[in-house]
Amino acid sequence: MKQSKQNKIAEAAQVACLLEASCEKPGGVTPTKRFDDLCYTDFLLASVIFGQTLRETSHKSVGEIILKSVKAVKKEVKSNANLGIILLIAPLANAFYRRGELCAKNVRSTLSALTIEDADDAFKAIKLANPGGLGTEPVHDARKKASITLLRAMKLAAHRDWIAHEYAHNFDITFSIGVGELVKNIKSTASFRDAVVQTYLRLLYLYPDSHIGRKASKDTALKISEKAGEVLHKGGVTAKAGRRAISAFDKYLRSDSNLLNPGTTSDLIAATLFAYFLKYGYGAMNLGKKKK
């Protein structure tokens, strides 16, 4: 039986979010590492809930998708588990539902149709999720009723936040860099999860993490990007020296009560995986399995 678009969207989102959480990314919550207020099982639960909500809402407006998803997750997971992921995947899911294909052109159409109501719903979701480091200058101002469209709000915030940048620049990181890097790394690494970690390191190197920039400083974010570049220079997951460097990098990122968690980079990885799975499917996840 032909799978519905809603089911394809929900499945891709759940697999993307579950896989993102399951990879041993330096500095993040993983199957073996947790934060004081978040653990691996929180992300598993949030992933399943988000996918189910997308199955029920992908035909609705982007703002509705964001707000309903955050509300559903918040009922079961008290800390902010996946706000950034929801903000990124919502317009991608809506574009796929409406056009049947996820590509830059279709996403552009979805973004250009965003309304003030979308912004108001997104602001409510941001306030509800209460992300760390929000400060007094979130996307436009999430503490007030929206007076501009969601796309306009994101454009105003694009200089300081990579999630807003994606809206403002038609998801160019996800489509042009993220998916391309993942495809390349699938071919050059031993497992799909290794390919995800290598892509994560590449994105962290290219785009100083804006979550760290908000919670610590832009200079700190730049320093961490340079360290990610050093890890890649040693081979990352593809070499023994690189794996040792990843371990040291992970310890460094966890040295200050998870202040240095590259959370936005993790969000970009989830969006990249979502776009990849809708385009290529799940066959490459068998990478690394022994042939019988």
Structural class: mainly alpha
Task: Name the CATH superfamily classification.
Answer: Triphosphoribosyl-dephospho-CoA protein
Quick one: biggest sheet?
none
**CATH fold field value:** Triphosphoribosyl-dephospho-CoA protein
Strand/helix succession? HHHHHHHHHHHHHH
Walk me through the structure.
This protein is an all-alpha fold and 292 residues long. The chain has one domain (5-282): Triphosphoribosyl-dephospho-CoA protein (Orthogonal Bundle). The chain is 66% helix and 0% strand. It is built from 14 helices and no strands. It has helices at residues 5-22, 40-57, 62-76, 83-99, 104-112, 116-129, 150-157, 162-168, 172-188, 192-206, 210-215, 218-233, 240-253, 263-280.
Key structural traits:
292 residues; mainly alpha; Triphosphoribosyl-dephospho-CoA protein; 0% strand
Q: How would you summarize what this structure contains?
A:
With 292 residues, the protein is mostly helical. The chain has one domain (5-282): Triphosphoribosyl-dephospho-CoA protein (Orthogonal Bundle), CATH 1.10.4200. The chain has helices spanning 5-22, 40-57, 62-76, 83-99, 104-112, 116-129, 150-157, 162-168, 172-188, 192-206, 210-215, 218-233, 240-253, 263-280.
